[in-house]
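[Solved] Which block belongs to which protein?

Original post:
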Amino acid sequence: MHAPSQSPAEQPVAVVFGATGGIGSELARRLFRAGWKLSLHARTEAPLATLAGELSAASKAVDATEPTAVEAALTAANERFGRVDAVAHCVGSLLLKPAHATTDREWQETLSQNLTSAFNVVRAAVPLLRGRGGAIVLVSSVAARRGLANHEAIAAAKAGVVGLTLAAAASYARHQIRVNCVAPGLTRTPLAAPILRSETALKYSTALHPLGRIGEPADVASAIAWLMQPEQSWLTGQVLGVDGGLVAVQPSLSLGA
């Protein structure tokens, strides 16, 4: 795979956390094709090294729940490329349990993997972007904005990501740092595989989304990449629902046209 020809000075730099996930890997490939330089990070070394080799990217295994590791990864990217233009946080987990069945450990892990990791990325990215501006894009969930049964822990964590997005957008707008997030519906990723393996669950989820299908990684990655582009310089504090209409649209119950 070859990136478009650009001089090094013209190539923007993106740092992607959660780069080996279904959405993160699609985002990395999309940015590479658009001519971005990449610094990729995920917890597991082997798939990360494979992806980085495919995309001629810098990489380092990082647990985004560890603030010092996140800071070191961003600092290394800045030192290697001389700049950072955009940072994407595609780290997350999925827990489908009602509150009464959720253990303390599950609750803490859900908060850590989804909300704490996002906070760590924002906190570490801001000092690098403050001088020249740039974009931070986080990933929330449709569950943060619509009540879905058995989503209490993940909904709370992802709602925190929405709050983080809005507050950080307000704090850093004067530095021309744009902070936005996407809120996907059910998307065909390895994380969602346990749900998608159930024909009943898949049929129900498909019907739940007004556009009549579940999401694909490209649906979400394209929205993140769009928000990262410098052309979107007047967009901040936005929560973009990439959810087949689930939050905003009532599916038609009519059997006619």
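(Second protein starts here: sequence line, then its structure tokens.)
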Amino acid sequence: MPRPLPLLAATALVPALLAGQRAPRAEGRPAAYTLVREADLRRDVAELASPAMRGREGGTLDELRASMWVAERYRRIGLVPMGDDGTYFQWFDIVRTRVSPTASRIVVDGRALVPFAEVIPLAVVPAEASGPVVWVADARDTTVDVRGRIVATQLLAPAPNAIRANSYTYASRYADAAIAGTALRFQRRGAAAVLLVASAPVDSAFAVAAASRERGQFDVDRAVPRAAGGSDRVAPPPALGQGPVPTFLVRAAMAPSLARGGATAELSVRLERFTYPSVNVIGGVRGTDPRLRDEWVVFSSHQDANGVRPTLEGDSVHAGADDNATVTAAGLAAARAFVKQPGKRSVLFINHGSEERGLLGSRHHAMHPVVPLERLVAVINGDMIGRNHPDTATLLGAQPPHLNSSEFTKMALVANERSARFALDTLWDRPTHPEGWYFRSDHLPYARRGVPALMWSTNLHDDYHTPRDNPANIDYAKLVRMAQWMYLTGWYVATAPSRPRVDPGVRLER
């Protein structure tokens, strides 16, 4: 399959970041550098991303099983438990809001449709509408008065430039573009509800479209807001009449009965909200310097992936080997090194829960850290570090407007020169990049709270969020170099005479 985003040209390091700067005092590589070993990385990726982990979906027993696996690794390595009540676990509640598949009733042309199997409510909004269905043969036709009426129409093919160039499967991207483009034509015309009839290409992706929307929306209360300037509280579920026009996707097979006219619909959509647990797994290594040991360097990953989804090429488990078993394995390698040879500062290792649900674990911990926030000196976060060109990588947060600490970035760049020597692709860190990659991982809540933070990545690929993201596809030689680079950066921060400062006047948002 061709890449939806071609490999971006690698660029040289930004010279201004290193101009006139001396290397950190911790010259070279510490002896424990040799403990970052390929055999350990291979084993840990294989176990965490094994089929037995069932994709480690956030808020499920599968995620808890993976979290216990991480905690047991922490124990074997010798990390000090830093979670609740002397354990490795910091618990928090996920708040989930979804369309109730049992309390909702959707009847079209006299037939009760099964939610998410035969009809997909496309937004988490309550709805109550009944009456005749008006068939609009061409969604581009604006002459039909749809005010207060239930409308049905065939999905339009999306314009090619409306299909986002990202790393999800083409079928799902096509479906999303077709749905959004057609629904938008009715959102402001006063329709009571809209039934979108799937075209053949979208019908083939019906299960994929249903799988994501059936899960609903996820949030965490009293946490760093999901967006800058937002509330730290979970908003109440929308009331009837709030939000967008209720819109539904039905199977292509319904087109003939709706097009012939005379159909009716009864649309009663109810929401349900409930909570269940997720967890951050946290361990530490105490520093050796009495003056600096109460300052903490953070190594950050997430243990969850995307669970069990519709089958693709004979497999339904989203194993999440690159996303994010590679970084968890790299963090464990760094932990072994720091236990063997501690730095002057202490080091905190965090596997954040439910990252794929919306950075829930990191948003919670950044608001409720296990050590005072002002003692967190830097966050070394990674997301997907084992794929793509063997000699390129990305350091997100290394250039404005995402740059929040020039001093921390300089340490990371020097560490790269003394270890992996990757050519750094700076395009993924720009605010104009279509992926918005900087805003999609666990360093972000810490950066928003003023902690120096960077994200290591080798970027997206065609297997992202698919069952093909499995251990067999990892470039382990590259993973070793990424893990060494991240560890050496942490060592420099942990042994530097002074902590890296946050640059004045930082504004991360676009």
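Accepted answer:
You had them paired correctly. Confirming on the second one: The chain has twelve helices and 20 strands.
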